[in-house]
Write a structure and sequence with these properties.
Structural class: alpha+beta
Distance between the termini: 79 Å
Shape: elongated
Bound molecules: 3,4-dihydroxyphenylalanine
Number of strands: 9
Number of helices: 12
Largest sheet: 7 strands, mixed
Strand content: 15-25%
Order of helices and strands: HHHHHEEHEHEEHEEEHEHHH
Helix content: 25-40%
């Protein structure tokens, strides 16, 4: 028996396996109930009493050897299965490329958050619109030049299906199904039939704001504008309003802010005037309120609209409008830290 044990010890020490299935076959061969090692244990009861001690010890050694050998074969194959030995685990890991928000989204979100602190909530409308919501309800006379084919993209031959040229269309959509108080901010994409250049694009983004309630005055508009300008461009920012014309507001104005590059001293960016234009605004024309089902004798309101690209250019000095839609990663990555 002792020879048999020694023979098995030698065999087991030299065992090799190339995959886990082979290891399992070896385990069955030696260690299962009917395996060779177990069979020797069964024979143990026939061993004469004076040899039991020595053979018992040898049998235990054999069993430990077989168990250790099979476990170590198994472990070495399992680790080969999961870890590629050609990997250098001490190497510094490569940076995970992080995405970042588009600059226009960053600025749009800033505008929304400033107005939401004043109680405005976001309202959205369709990009494919009809004449009523983009023009007629907003007091555009039938022959107003903005309806001209050169400005507006019409869809199909139907002049009543068009791409909105401004987000003011959302004003009339909200007013026709909501009674005041209304305090909304409407971000969105708009389209104009313009040749693409550094300064013009066939689509861009606007944010419109509308406030309608009893006793809304021009002073409310001015204070809102000042708050917005200071939150957006810094507490030192000054504003000025210049009289202007929009069909849907009366009176109308355009707002300039003190140039945020030179602080109002005059530079090439502000064409040495110290001021840059950022938005249009005014008191909602009573015709617009009435057209949308709001009694202009009871309610008044103000509205304002701005181009997101314009505000972004001012904040980040982007010189060419086309960069916003080219998706050049070198440009986009510059805004990684901006939020
Ligand atoms: N809709 C105007 C445009 O696209 C911007 C605008 C001006 C919106 C004055 C307004 C406003 O609400 O009061 O140029």
């Amino acid at each position: 028996m002792i020879e048999k044990i020694n023979q098995l010890k030698a065999d087991i020490s030299n065992l090799t396996a190339t995959d886990l299935a082979q290891v399992e076959a070896l385990r069955i061969k030696y260690l299962s109930k009917k395996g060779e090692v177990s069979l020797l244990f069964n024979d143990f009861r026939n061993v004469p009493a004076d040899q039991k001690r020595a053979i018992g010890q040898a049998l235990n050694e054999l069993k430990n050897l077989a168990t250790d050998k099979i476990n170590s074969l198994k472990e070495s194959l399992e680790s080969v299965d999961t870890i590629d030995s050609s990997l250098d685990l001490t190497r510094t890991p490569a940076m995970m490329p992080l995405g970042s928000r588009h600059p226009l989204s960053i600025v749009r979100n800033d505008i929304i958050s400033i107005f939401s602190r004043l109680g405005f909530t976001v309202a959205e409308g369709p990009e494919i619109e009809d004449d009523w919501h983009v023009f007629s309800s907003l007091n555009f006379a039938a022959d107003h030049p903005a309806r001209d084919m050169q400005d507006t993209f019409f869809i199909q031959r139907n002049p009543d299906v068009l791409l909105r040229t401004h987000t003011s269309s959302v004003q009339s959509r909200v007013m026709e199904h909501t009674q005041p108080p209304i305090r909304i901010i409407c971000p969105g994409r708009v389209y104009r039939n313009e040749a693409i250049s550094a300064r013009a694009h066939c689509f861009f983004h606007q944010v419109e704001a509308l406030y309608v309630d009893k006793n809304v005055s021009f002073a409310d508009l001015k204070q809102t504008l000042l708050y917005f300008a200071r939150e957006m461009f810094g507490p030192e920012t000054k504003i000025r309003l210049r009289p202007s014309y929009f069909p849907f507001t009366e009176p109308s104005a355009e707002m300039d802010i003190s140039c945020n590059l030179c602080g109002g001293k005059g530079c090439s960016f502000c064409k040495h005037t110290g001021w840059v234009e950022i938005l249009g605004c005014g008191m909602v024309d009573p015709n617009v309120l009435d057209a949308c089902g709001i009694d202009s004798k009871v309610y008044s309101g103000f509205a304002l609209g701005m181009g997101v690209e314009r505000i972004t250019n001012l904040k980040y000095q982007v010189k060419d409008l086309r960069m916003f839609s080219e998706n050049d990663r070198r440009f986009l990555e510059e805004f990684q830290s901006a939020r």
